[in-house]
Queue: 4 jobs
Job 1
Amino acid sequence: MKVWCLAILVLLPLSLFQISYGNAYEEKQILLKALKIKGDIQRGALIYEEACVACHYENAVGDPAGTFPQLAGQHENVIIKQMAEIAGGFRVNLTMLPYSTTKALVSSTEDLFKHPLTSTQVLADIAAYLASLPISINTTKGPGKILDKGKKLFESRCSKCHGVNGKGKAVASIPALAGQNYNYLMRQIDVYNKGSRKKANPVMLRLMKGLKKVELGPVMDYLSRMK
Ligand code: HEC
Ligand code: HEC
């Protein structure tokens, strides 16, 4: 009897962990397949209007308060990877979680097309559409006071990865930051430091932890104004 109880006590949490972690991993892998297929921009636009526009706004410029990031002009790889991480629970985003799962992506196409598309195809289509949009600079900005300091710090510590023009690098899945909402960028400092983006680039994480928010503020301000 005692042995049974002990076995259950040990095995139950272990198997629950396995199930939830296993599912998250699988969800992520399914979505990552989208990296290998070609997206259809026109179809992506239709699906975006159905599934994403309520939060990320028309033309994917994000909301004026910076709660929802701009997605316009972001690299396809970045969109796909971030979606996979959100759906898989590797990036904590409770607001968007229900809209990022493979099931939600498929169901968003059920009314649009005669046959629902696979989640992999849906994601590739949306990513192709988003990458094709021009980056808007009508996003939230910081105080604009010490932009030269922000520029200097960005060019010495960040531009090696994110590019001097802030456009990131498609092949390496490094996000474009130019024109992004200042409020969103500032929030990401806390998000990274709290460990809520579990697949974050370790080099960048160390770099951010070593800098103060007052130092990073002007960098984000500078980026939000970059065309
Ligand atoms: C209910 C609101 C909501 C809906 C609907 C929604 N999102 Fe989001 N999305 C968010 C929020 C909030 C964030 C930012 C979370 C944070 O601050 O980390 C986000 C972040 C993202 C990011 C990460 C951006 C980056 O720069 O890393 C991507 C990619 C994204 N959303 C794509 C989509 C797509 C594609 C859809 C439609 C299938 C969608 N979202 C639907 C709320 C939403
Ligand atoms: C070693 C390469 C590297 C360096 C250096 C680097 N980053 Fe990043 N950064 C990345 C990668 C890769 C991502 C996307 C995936 C992740 O790590 O979350 C990212 C993501 C980000 C994001 C989130 C973007 C979004 O859309 O959510 C911000 C903000 C950011 N970086 C700012 C900075 C700043 C500011 C610096 C300099 C202080 C910096 N990065 C230096 C590689 C780097």
Job 2
Amino acid sequence: MVVAAPYAFALEAEPEEPIIVINEVMVNPDAVSDSRGEWIELYNTSSNPVSLLGWTVTDGKRDMFIIDEDIAISPDGYVVLARCGDPLRNGGVHADFEYSGMYLANGGDAIMLFDKMGAVHDALFYSEERGFTIPCGASLEVKDPFKTNTPSSQWAPSTSVFGDGDFCTPGTCNSWYVPPDPVQKPPRGALFFLFKKGILPVDGFLE
Ligand SMILES: [Ca+2]
Ligand SMILES: [Ca+2]
Ligand SMILES: [Ca+2]
């Protein structure tokens, strides 16, 4: 097809898609009651800020709330949506948004995130049947937000003690996440040595 080249250019010119992931959930707090201590952490994996105004969180059944405040989630940033927004009552969590009408069942439940256009953006279905171990007094954390968070193997109880004593990392990097090392480039002198030895081709040295 003759449109191949312009189409490829258009793809490259598209702005990067924002990807907001369900990154951590406090399903069964121990330091405070569930009615005060449940929360959901979102993480922005993209390099663009995203407004969450008009986004919906639901379990697909009767639980649902809409984010009706203009909350921005910055690149590489976190937003905490909490059932109780008072850190003196919710275990010490500083929430960005307080919701009602959403309950996280301790045995298993669903959390679906819809964007303002009504498109499903991310979803978590946790239950023991699906291989999840839902701890008491610890959140469930995604191990790597840049990989799919669907399988239970991508989730683990937090190992960081927080606030009133439960294990969790609300609003910060998960305890399980180890960022990849930045790409290491050998120093210029080492490249010249390899070039002189004939190990590195001219193309590689001039790169
Ligand atoms: Ca529910
Ligand atoms: Ca619960
Ligand atoms: Ca976290």
Job 3
Amino acid sequence: MAVALDLDGTVWLAGQPLPGAPDAVRRLRDTGHAVAFVTNNSSARRVEVAAALDRAGIAATADEVVTSGVATASLVRAGETVLVCGGPGLTEELEAVGARTVRDGDADVVAVGYHRDFDYERMRIAARAVRRGARLVGSNADATYPTPDGPLPGAGAILASVVTAAGVPAQVAGKPHEPMARVVRSRLGPHGWVVGDRLDTDGRFAVALGYRFALVLSGVTAAGDRDPAAPVDVVGDDLASVVGDLLRAGPG
Ligand SMILES: [Mg+2]
């Protein structure tokens, strides 16, 4: 069985493991299950995410981390020029598929992701390249991301400003959209589980993948919340509590 684990609100929060999460991941591995850490965060490089997981007590390799940067790069062809309006993780994935990344000027693609130093100048440069013909691709459309101090503006907020300024819609790569589903399916196969804390991203992502969905209540979703487009197969307080149900339920 393959398990696609969300990170924020499922495995950790702000890099601190949620209680029981390291043991729960170990239990999945010990029972022979393939694990992937699937995050819409495109800012950090995969090797940095894996190192942070290791520090949190969760053994992980960069190859087991799938970011929305990987999904964004899957929409770019080798040799294309990509204007990056995002963080180092996004740039690295784009260069890994043979794109030439630039920070200004004309481009084939404008790739937008979360980055803390986004400002008016970057919005202007990105919107101008789109108006001059570049395809607009967003790593994800999440309006916010969770922190111990409450939600902070996410990649979706940055993307919305570029969409507004450029006057065209964006193709979105990350959860719950098809580019990310193609990447995860190619790694984990046609059957499995998604475990996550968001109905609108993780739950709908499970639908896109054709996987079953285990909802954890350790993140943004309250016990009674439901989304008709995101059927819930298993619900539990946290990863530790749903892993037992997953192991009993069998393949997705
Ligand atoms: Mg989450």
Job 4
Amino acid sequence: MSLLEAISLGKEFKRRGQRSLAPLAAVDDVNLAVKPGDFITITGKSGSGKTTLLTLLAGLASPTSGRVLFRGRNLRELPDRELSRLRNREISFIPQGMGLLGNLTVRDNVRAPQLFAGKDGADSSRADFLLEAVGLSELAQEYPPSLSGGEMRRVAIARALFNQPALLIADEPTSDLDPANTRLVMELLRKANQQDTTVLMVTHEQEIALYGSVRLTMESGKLA
Ligand SMILES: Nc1ncnc2c1ncn2[C@@H]1O[C@H](COP(=O)(O)OP(=O)(O)OP(=O)(O)O)[C@@H](O)[C@H]1O
Ligand SMILES: [Mg+2]
């Protein structure tokens, strides 16, 4: 069975102030089957619908047509509790804007899945292990606003890997990293993939896309 499946998936946006025009099909009739163990990369021009597609696949936005199945179950039909559990335990999403919490230390950002699960007292060795892996051990006690863009990005990646998710969805995870850190992050994702995390990521860079075992392109809302 597919881990994740998109069936005739569509998302339309009404353009403000252009009522006469047809709505924009940001995602247009997309079909996709993600198998466990896949490493999928999606490239495409700015505005082609990549981010919109990822938010639908992660269950963060509702499609205007079609559906998304995770382990055969429609994300939009899951009870809130179950969807929250899925997001904490099974599906990690690294948004283009990263979404770090400014009032938590770097270490607590990485172990946020633990904090959200009410396990504040649990030990932080996994967080420290991941901070080491992304080369940020020294910044564990800092707060995100004092980090560089590339450092924040690596914190977001460490957090996304915290619960060893079944599925990691990442929107341009290397966009603000230098070549050395890009390699570090891609190797980390490759390692996670070898340890049973299915990876689905968007990138602008063709070189990065080569990490994928399945390489897709998005154009005007269509996936090919
Ligand atoms: N909330 C929204 N309301 C209206 N239009 C939107 C909304 N979000 C995205 N769009 C439009 O949908 C299209 C696809 O946007 P999306 O963010 O998915 O592109 P993208 O491929 O991720 O681009 P980039 O590479 O620049 O991140 C764009 O034309 C965008 O303007
Ligand atoms: Mg985008």
